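Suppose a classmate hands you a notebook page containing two proteins, each written out with its sequence and a corresponding row of structure tokens. How would you begin to make sense of it? This section walks through that situation. The first entry is reproduced here exactly as it would appear on such a page.
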Amino acid sequence: MKNIGRKEESERVMNKMKTRCQVLYNYRYLIKQLVTKDIKLKYRRSFLGYVWSVLNPLMVMVVMYLVFSKMFRFNIDNYSAYLIIGQTLFTFMTEATNQAIFSITGNGPLLKKVYVPKYVFTLSKVTSSLVNLVFSLGAMIIVFVITKVQFSWAMPFFPGYFNGSIYFQPWSWLVFGGGSCILQRYTVYL
């Protein structure tokens, strides 16, 4: 008797997930437009444009390399490669989380005019951060080539490490993005 209840519960959950995926699929063009808008707005008045997404991680990595490697005399093989990997992943996480938190209140006027599921805005902000991550991977490849990192059979699986963090984070983005709408008006100035 308990197994029948569990089976019905799992079917109900699966139907709910299918419905949400269908709604998300229906709003795919809106998500694409929002991501395109975010990318264009980020680089609208930038002299370097999209090149800045590659130069910024490189310059930060060079400064951190000089400070920690030369001033503190750390002798770690491929330290700059480790540094750019960690910095790229950390930058993606912080950017995606910060944008997801403010995604719903930032699009408040659109939400008041038309019905759109709120998670569409959170997903679009995270996707635009993912596009910036792809640009930053160019900087990572440049560092790998310059520092002559020995490529191994595990390198093609490297994007899988990012996928693990990408699949882990959406829950926090949705919770913080949707749950913090009330409190963020009061805490944004702290």
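The notebook's second entry, a different protein, reads as follows.
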Amino acid sequence: MVSSPRRVGVLIGDGIGPEVVPAAMTVADAAAAVEGFGIDWEELPFGAAAIASHDDAVPDATLSALDDLGLWIVGPHDSAAYPVEHRSRTPGAVLRTRYGLFANLRPAKAFPGVPATKPDIDVLIVRENSEGLYADRNMTVGSGEFMPTPDVALAVGLVTRSASERIARVAFEAARDRADSGRPARLTIVHKANVLRLTTGLFRDACREVGKEFPDVEITEQHVDAMAALLVRRPADFDVIVTENLFGDILSDLAGELAGSLGIAGSVNCSTTQVMAQATHGAAPRHRRAGRRESRRHDRVGGHGVPALRAHRGRPGTDRGCRPHGFGGRRHPRGRDRDRRPGRDGIDHRVRRRGGPAGDRHVTRTRTCVNSGWSAGGTGGNYSVLSDQVIVRDRRDVL
């Protein structure tokens, strides 16, 4: 039985956003069809195009529409290229602050078809997203970065016990959810308390306290510099990693590249009721094919493609928005095996940057059926894969 369509917001963004976001929408439509429902996409003004039409990168009309939505996908924004008067606050900061998107979940997993530095990597980095040293999110008024004189620059780092405990609970729940019969729940707390004793020391201590509520989760700790080295040396030793904002941003980019490319590095920013799916990579404006008509705009594919798009299982008002179940959640052995089969049609589906002939449109329309054994009108089963660019992993990863 087909259920009523789910409303999902779409903010196309800048640079390669008009190329990669529609590809993600195609994948989500196909996955939703398998589950027996449709998606009612609601495209909203955003980014440079919104500045041109509304004189604001995130217009009030967009915010009013998002207020009523539980999920939206966001293309990259190139705020550095905006007119000076529109650079004071990035569009991402506006959305994170308004909707309290405190958790940034970033999985990194190697997939077939993408040459990976570390093929055995399969980690979920849980990044605190509302505090830290980032100047666009640690002050209610003003900026956390300032210059008292032209030759002196200062930055304020914010760490609170409540925010640290909140992100720790998300991480411990994710570790418990990702565990299976063959491996225990594992979580690594990453900090730099040997130097930043008060700030990251508070973060570490808050995570330790929350850990007492999860006796079934095996807890380890690493300093952030050691963690970077260990991710490169033996990533299979780690599962869920929880850390503060700046450390999480750096480690997740490293993990994404070790898995093959930032182009497949999935990311969601979430509160307890709302989820914003957003690519880890940037706008990459120099990679966009300028001057292409609408019908051709998906033909170009680089390593900056759409991230793994995993829609949340939560619903507005259900306090499930930031649950890890639908994103970077439990491993499914059959799904992994299915991933590793070659395309049954014998066609080279690799994207151009990886030495193949495929573009976004080709990848999206063919791999949906070829490698996963299902079609948009088919029936369920564990399914996965869409190429180097767009990946839907499992039944639980759809809306």
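A careful reader of the second entry would note: Confidence is low (pLDDT under 50) at residues 290-320, 332-345, 366-399.
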